[in-house]
Design brief:
It is a single chain. By secondary structure, this protein is α/β, with parallel strands linked by helices. Helix content is 49%, strand content 16%. It has nine helices and nine strands. The protein has a seven-stranded parallel β-sheet with strand order 3-2-1-4-5-6-9, with helices on both faces. The protein has a two-stranded parallel sheet with strand order 7-8. The relative contact order is 0.13.
Length: 270
């Protein structure tokens, strides 16, 4: 199928999602919402009627996203901070609950990539940084989201990766961190299902995104080769991943809990 036809199909399905998945009166918290997939998620949830609590480490980016969303009529609370700082995470979530009276959905999207490296040549500071942001940051957000949801229930979606299910050559630190995200997701699902809190992980494969561009710029593999390796012979779009977020966090998906869902074009079917 021609790429433009694929894009048109995705846009059509997205429009249908907006009509079906109603987030009116829902409060959705999204981390890493200043750019890329987090920004697109914020835009889509706003279009679906949600009130938004968004954050990012980049103060200018998150301010611009918030300004655009408010111009479209969305009620937005936006702050800039580092999710690896639990004190700031707790303060933001407490502010969210005070401002909106609740958090219905927490999407822990903030994350970083590592410099491409083989295991035997890796600088362990890269591993420390992965654990600081991709594990500790996600864990801190989930911890305080859970506390805020125990009375009324809610949904938490942690962004992992296909690298959190399978191995990822040249990205071992990133892969180990994303495996940990899946582990903490499943554990929280078991512990908090009794409170009507669903906790799942979304595990995309190669997505045509700014983060993937960083990998490609380091030279180990091209987008063309990634596409050829996939049964669908293309990369995922960010919109396709956001569409999965919209469904996984919706009331239509009320019995999925403790799952790590691969959105990979069939890559794990081999």
């Amino acid at each position: 199928m021609h790429w433009q036809s694929i894009q048109n199909t995705i846009e059509k399905h997205t429009e249908t999602n907006m009509q079906t998945l109603d987030y009116s009166n829902k409060v959705v918290m999204i981390t890493g919402a200043g750019a890329g997939m987090g920004k697109l998620a914020a835009e889509n949830f706003a279009q679906a009627g949600a009130k938004l609590a968004i954050c990012d480490i980049n103060k200018e980016n998150i301010a611009n996203v918030a300004e655009d969303l408010r111009a479209q009529g969305c009620d937005v609370l936006a702050r800039a901070f580092d999710v690896s700082d639990e004190t700031q995470v707790q303060s933001f979530i407490e502010e969210c609950v005070k401002y909106f009276d609740k958090i219905d959905v927490g999407i822990n999207n903030a994350g970083i990539l590592q410099p491409v490296s083989h295991v035997h040549t890796m600088d362990l500071t890269a591993l420390d940084l992965q654990y600081q942001v991709n594990i500790k940051g996600a864990f801190a957000c989930m911890k305080h989201q859970l506390a805020s949801m125990m009375a009324e229930g809610g949904v938490i979606l942690n962004l992992s990766s296909l690298a959190g299910i399978n191995g990822a050559p040249n990205l071992s630190a990133y892969s180990s961190a994303k495996h940990a995200v899946v582990g903490m997701t499943r554990t929280a699902a078991v512990e908090y299902g009794r409170f009507n809190i669903r906790v799942n992980a979304l595990c995309p494969s190669f997505v045509d995104s700014p983060m993937l561009n960083d990998v490609v710029e380091q030279g180990p593999i091209s987008k063309e080769r990634m596409s050829d390796f996939n049964p669908m012979k293309r990369l995922a779009t960010m919109q396709e991943i956001v569409n999965a977020m919209l469904w996984m966090c919706s009331d239509y998906n009320s019995y999925m809990n403790g799952q790590a869902i691969a959105i990979d074009g069939g890559l794990t079917a081999f």
